[in-house]
């Protein structure tokens, strides 16, 4: 584990985040899990898919 992360963990241990920040973090994680679950159940819409484009060759 890099030293930067150990320093961050010690800072959080000495100065824990506020309940509001913990709620925000949990809300973001829940939103990500919800979107991932929706995508897993129904798949990705074809209209939002990426289409392959040529290498920029201009037709004559």
UniProtKB/TrEMBL annotation:
Transmembrane segments: 21-42
Keywords carried by this UniProt record: Membrane, Transmembrane, Transmembrane helix
Protein name stated in the entry: Uncharacterized protein
